[in-house]
Amino acid sequence: MAITATHTIALPSLRVGSPGVIALQGAAALAASTGIARFVFTPILPLMQTQAGLSVSDGAGLATVNYVGYLLGALLGIGIPVLVRSQRVMRVAMLLTVATLALMPAVSDVAWWSVLRFVAGLTSALVFIAATSAMISRLRAVGPHFVGWGFGGIGTGIALSGIVVLVVRATSTWQTAWFIAAGLAALLTVVAWGLPPAVATAEGRTSDGDALPPTGHRFAALVISYGFEGIGYIIAGTFLVAAIGQSGPAWTGDGAWVVVGLAAMPGAALWTALGRRWSRPTLLTVALGVQAVGVALTGVLPGSASALVSAALFGGTFVGISSLALALGAHFQVPRAVALLTTGYAVGQILGPVLSRPLLVGGYAGPLLLGGAIIAAAALAGLAVRFHFPHRVGTAVEPSRSAR
To answer: Pick from 194, 222, 224, 312: CA 20 to 30 A from residue 48's CA?
Structure first.
């Protein structure tokens, strides 16, 4: 089936109440809560270490409490699903997220920083589940690429956070970086304010309206795959910038982070567009394989050229992997599938730093190679989802055609 420009990455219409507006609102929510609130700490951390005296262990501790908060938010999404189906809760969570960013430079104690990063993790998980559930349930039947553009908001937030730190590094202090991040998150919250909550799909049918295929053990394999991705992705997200910056000027690490964000912006839409030709399990496996190569590349071939390639491969896949996995989980119609998958991902994020810490004595190559190996294992689990997949679930073609 030929892929036309109209069916692939066509920009959405922005008429009021149109799918394009919902995609824009979802993108803004993810840019604020995930791209900025969660990931801005990565480029700001070196500034806090040099200017605020933050130790390596304290920095790792702040990252960990953020992951724990994210896990708790995901668990709340499972145990109290009304939280992530409420527009009011999402709005409050976004306001709290902005507050945690603005308060970071207002205190100078690690204990308070830990509290703020914990709350930021919890609220970002609630917003992530609410926004992705809303986009998947409301946009999948209209056009899969809309959801892809919505997920691209994560890349927008990452790129903005990297640009902020690049500018601040040369002109100001770590406090200014947090204040600017809070201001950007506040503006994005205004854009996301009207995002409607998720809607329920018909019992026994996918969100595309196709007959629901038997899931068997495929959802369990999907959870395992996405959990492994959480481990490998967080290792890369934690050490990639530092590894690149270690082998060159300090700005190269921040520049690579901007590349990650820029590649992530269209990444989900591109992977979604490919879903018009191949099934999501196939694309998920391929995306994980590409990411495994990108993460391991810097560990094998240090240098500026490999760093840019690694950053582009990582950024171009990790958001796409999330959009593919969560949309596929929604198609399986497992209750609270998005929250369950997000929980597995959050557990992986906590395990990643623990597993990689013993390897840091030899530099960053060991953790990055470990991350690549774990993501390769995620790809193998993805094959279990794809194996004898009964329908082209998640593609925009008729479900009677076999998966490729």
So the answer is: 312
Rg of the chain over all Cα atoms, to the nearest angstrom: 20
- pLDDT tens-digit series, residues 17-45: 578 899 999 999 999 999 999 889 988 88
Each residue of 60-89: pLDDT tens digit?
Answer: 889 889 999 999 999 998 888 888 889 999
d(CA 244, CA 150): 29
Domain boundaries, the chain: 16-386
Place of tokens 């994020």: 349
Distance CA 109, CA 198 (A): 39
Residue 247 has pLDDT above 70, yes or no: no
CA distance 352 to 204: 36
* Per-residue pLDDT tens digits for 167-176: 888 788 999 9
Structure tokens at 124: 């970002």
Distances in Å between the alpha carbon of 209 and those of 201, 212, 389? Answer: 8, 9, 18
* β-bridge mates for residue 205, sequence order: 211
Count the alpha carbons within 13 Å of 76 in the hemisphere toward its beta carbon: 24
**CA 335 to CA 203: how far, in whole Å?**
11
Measured in residues, the chain has a length of 404
